[in-house]
Each structure stands twice: as structure tokens, then as C-alpha cells.
Amino acid sequence: MASYVLPVLLLLCVAASASASPGLSPRFYARSCPGALDTIRIAVEEAVRNEPRMGASLLRLHFHDCFVQGCDASVLLNDTATFTGEQSAAPNVASIRGFAVIDNIKARVEAICRQTVSCADILALAARDSVVALGGPSWTVPLGRRDSTTASLSLANSDLPAPSFDVANLTAAFAAKNLSVTDMVALSGGHTIGDSQCLNFRDRIYNETNNIDAAFATSLKSICPRSTSSGNSSLAPLDVATPTAFDNKYYGNLLAKKGLLHSDQVLVNARGGVGGLVRRYAGSPARFGKDFGAAMVRMGNVSPLTGSQGQIRLICSRVN
Ligand code: HEM
């Protein structure tokens, strides 16, 4: 009998470590920088008060970090004469924003604890604090990520999902990061805040006559002309109902055929439980909030650098 105990215990340990954070801990800075989390939260609250959209931009920065060579702040690295980073990749160029806010947060954190808190952890915390500042759910953020010394333009082009994607492509893009269909549908709810440029929803409003509310399409056409020679960067809210509140209205919009992006609207009619998840989240803010927080933790666990890997950058936009 006793001979079974050790293998069973080992198996349990393996199973537990497979689902736990890969070496990350919420108390990582409890001794080394106890003021870090409050400093970051206060700076995010200020930035969001100044401009509510900034909460959306900070949430997206963490997503675009984690999907490209893991949550290692690679997205923050600027191009130099000898180095090309991720910011000019198609999903990022003239689109991702929030760098000045991250630089400001990093400077405040450096002022209290020198070279202790990574830029990758700042992105993870700023994403959570942004969602909370806009009225959304909270979750505990595992910490201890370190910053990369490299970035990848080609991975930014290949690994970030595109707004033209159908459910199969979306599912594959999330599965490639070990994220489930439930994670994908819950994380898509990040589009309850923030804006999209016309060039990302033009095809949808002019060519998808069946799967879009007619009045919704008409109103968008006034800011997003059919011709690609103008209006490309005009903005529309991703959540037409409550653009700056982090709530579950995004899913209600999808049920009403008022999703802004093709990749949003396709979730409704998909098989394999995807459409069911949309209906479940539309019907329950609590269920959405819980699943969104859990999915954010899983996204934040994608291939972090830990231990002595990488470095703690002094300035987030460049390697030391
Ligand atoms: C499911 C696949 C996804 C696709 C295809 C996608 C695509 C896009 C596109 C095209 C935009 C507009 C960019 C622009 O026009 O400049 C956008 C904005 C945004 N995305 Fe996503 N996204 C996806 C998933 C996510 C996830 C997982 C999150 C976070 C959890 C997220 C958060 C946001 C936010 C908050 C904005 C607004 C940013 C701002 O206003 O600055 N997206 N996304």
C-alpha cells in the first residue's frame, strides 16, 4: 500500500504545478518593494481619470506583450539604430498606446525601489488596475516576471490575432498560448472598453450585411468612409452601449449584432460552446467578471522570464 503513496504524491505535485503560476507569486515584492502596488495603482487611477480611454490602452498593452514571446515587456522596447522592436508590427503600428504612462509609473516605482520591479509586472498590474478603475472586476496578480533583452517584430506579426479572424483562427491563436476557448471568449470581453480605428471595421460595416444591425452600420458609415483614401484612423467605441465602463454590455451588443469587429461578432454564431459562453456572459456580469479575472491570470502566465533570466530594466523602453 505504502509503495503507492509516493507516486501518487508526485503525480499530485505535477498536476498542481501545471495549473499554478510558473514561478510567480502575488507576494513577490512584499519585502523588496512593499509600496510598489499602491504606487502603480495610484498612477493608473490618475491616468484613467485624466483620460478614460487610457485604461483600455493599458489593458491592451499587457495583451500585446503576453502574446509575443511571453509577458516580458518586449512590446515596450523602442527601435534603435541596431534593433527593431515590435511597435512597427501591423497590429501595433499607429495603434498601441500608453507608453508615456508606463514610463511615468516606472519612474515613480524606481524612485522608491531601484531596479526591483520589472516592466513586465508593471504591465500586468496596470492592466488589472485599469479594469478596476473603469468599474470592472479585480483579481490577484501573480508577480516576479523579468524583462526581456530582445523583442520580435516577426512574432508580433504572426502571433497577435487579427480583426478579420474567424472563430477557428481565433481559437488557434489562443490555443498557441495555452489559452482555452473559455479564456478566449472571456478575454474578448476586454473590448467592453476602448476604441477601434475605421480601417479595422470598414469591411464589416460595408460587406457584412447579414450579421450586422442596419442602423448600427449606417451610423458607423458616417465616420468611416468606404474609400480607403480617407478616414482610416477615425475612432468608434468597441462597446457602443457603455464605451468607458468595464461591464458585460459587450456581449449584449454581440447578441444585438452590434459587435464592432468581425472577430467580435463571429463569437455569437460559433459552435463548440463559444456562442453559449457569449449568452452566459451577456446574462451574468458576475460570471463574466470571475472568468475574465481568471483568464487574465492565465494570460499573464504565458512564458514569463523568472529567476535570473532577462533583467530588471531601469527604463522600460530600452534594455540596460
Ligand atoms: C480576440 C482577438 C482580438 C482581436 C482580433 C483584437 C483586435 C483589436 C483591434 C483591431 C483593436 C483596435 C485597434 C485600433 O484600431 O487601433 C483592438 C482594440 C482593443 N483591444 Fe483587442 N483584440 C483581441 C483581443 C483582445 C484582448 C484579449 C484584449 C484584452 C484582454 C483586448 C483589448 C483591447 C482593448 C482594450 C482595445 C482598445 C484599446 C484602445 O482604445 O487604446 N483585445 N483590438
UniProtKB/TrEMBL annotation:
- Active-site residues are H64
Its cofactor is: Ca(2+); heme b
Q: Which residues bind heme b?
A: H191
Note the site residues: Transition state stabilizer: R60
Keywords from the UniProt entry: Calcium, Disulfide bond, Glycoprotein, Heme, Hydrogen peroxide, Iron, Metal-binding, Oxidoreductase, Peroxidase, Pyrrolidone carboxylic acid, Secreted, Signal
Where in or outside the cell it occurs: the entry states: Secreted
Q: Which residues bind Ca(2+) 1?
A: D65, V68, G70, D72, S74, E86
Which molecular function terms from Gene Ontology are attached? heme binding; lactoperoxidase activity; metal ion binding; peroxidase activity
The portions of this protein that span the membrane are none
Q: What is this protein called?
A: Peroxidase
* Native source organism of the sequence: Brachypodium distachyon (Purple false brome)
